């Protein structure tokens, strides 16, 4: 799967990118590698990482067109889309758009791309605008967010408008070693691009199934207080973590996370209703993936809940399809 991304540039030095396939095509625009949000990564790096979290085997072809003012011209966008068509990409991610003016040439190139069999996923504006181009075009999959909606569901799909609507525009960047959230429809767009890159030929069926699935609901924090928890953490001596354990959870037992303690608690599963895992370092937490899955399979009655999204949504879906077991996370 070859995914075209039109965005800002980047150096891609974060360890998350070490085994990923990313090629950068430098066009006529001197794209700025701006640290716009103070996290030492560019917008383009955040977007590409979000895509690759869902489909780590994808090949990304990045065309940087964002200028120093964090904007780009419609002409540059059209040229970049033609470049990606020449590169035979399967899907194009546009975490950008024009909020002010309709351009017929942009409509023509987007229709041409779509009719060639290439999916386009584009972000709507983060501010309230009547339209954002090209996200509003019917042959483009638009991605927006609406925090005014009833937020029991994570995402909705409007097939008529070909639009994916998140109930929040905050997305985790835990996989980049940053245990926090980042806001913007750009990253919802990238999340959808990553998911659809694995399901290009039946994306509408997938989106409709996702919106009606168990994975489209937020895990309720309140259960941590009302049900008995076994709490695993990588910072048990941390005072803030201890306060979190006391105030947010009903933890019967707390342990520093290690591989060996997962099988140790197999024989104690009846004592707990939730295994809650709070590990704030993604790279270190990777070693526990298999142990977490094995625990979930061993005790299907205990809910396994992760504070941070160690698993991609794709991984959780596959695990559920194979084992009929859900691994819960607070974010997708």
From TrEMBL:
GO molecular function: serine-type endopeptidase activity
One of the GO BP terms on file: proteolysis
Pfam families in alphabetical order: Peptidase_S8
InterPro entries: Peptidase_S8/S53_dom (IPR000209), Peptidase_S8/S53_dom_sf (IPR036852)
Domain Peptidase S8/S53 as annotated: residue spans: 2-204
Protein name according to UniProt: Subtilase family protein
Species of provenance: Lachnotalea glycerini
């Amino acid at each position: 799967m070859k995914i075209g991304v039109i965005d800002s540039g980047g150096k891609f030095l974060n360890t998350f990118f070490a085994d990923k396939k990313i090629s950068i095509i430098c066009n006529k625009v001197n794209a700025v590698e701006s640290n716009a949000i103070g996290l030492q990564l560019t917008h383009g790096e955040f977007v590409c990482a979000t895509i690759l979290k869902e489909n780590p085997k994808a090949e990304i072809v990045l065309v940087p067109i964002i200028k120093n003012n964090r904007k780009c011209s419609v002409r540059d966008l059209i040229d970049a889309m033609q470049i990606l068509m020449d590169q035979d990409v399967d899907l194009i991610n546009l975490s950008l758009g024009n909020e002010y003016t309709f351009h017929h040439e942009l409509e023509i190139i987007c229709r041409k791309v779509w009719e060639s069999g290439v999916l386009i996923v584009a972000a709507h504006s983060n501010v309230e605008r009547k339209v954002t181009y090209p996200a509003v075009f019917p042959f483009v999959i638009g991605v927006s967010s609406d925090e005014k909606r009833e937020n029991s569901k994570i995402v909705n799909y409007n097939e008529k408008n070909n639009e994916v609507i998140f109930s929040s525009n905050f997305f985790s960047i835990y996989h980049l070693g940053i245990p926090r959230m980042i806001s913007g429809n750009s990253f919802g767009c990238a999340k959808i691009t990553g998911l659809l890159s694995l399901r290009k030929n039946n994306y509408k069926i997938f989106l409709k199934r996702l919106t009606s699935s168990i994975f489209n609901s937020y895990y309720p924090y309140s259960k941590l207080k009302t049900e008995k928890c076994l709490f695993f953490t990588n910072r048990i001596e941390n005072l803030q973590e201890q306060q979190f354990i006391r105030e947010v959870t009903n933890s019967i037992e707390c342990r520093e996370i290690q591989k060996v303690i997962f099988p140790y608690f197999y024989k104690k599963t009846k004592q707990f209703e939730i295994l809650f895992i709070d590990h704030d370092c993604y790279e270190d937490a990777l070693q526990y993936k298999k142990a977490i899955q094995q625990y979930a399979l061993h005790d299907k009655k205990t809910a396994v809940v992760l504070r941070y999204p160690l698993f991609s949504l794709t991984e959780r879906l596959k695990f559920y399809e194979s084992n009929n077991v859900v691994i819960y996370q607070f974010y997708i």
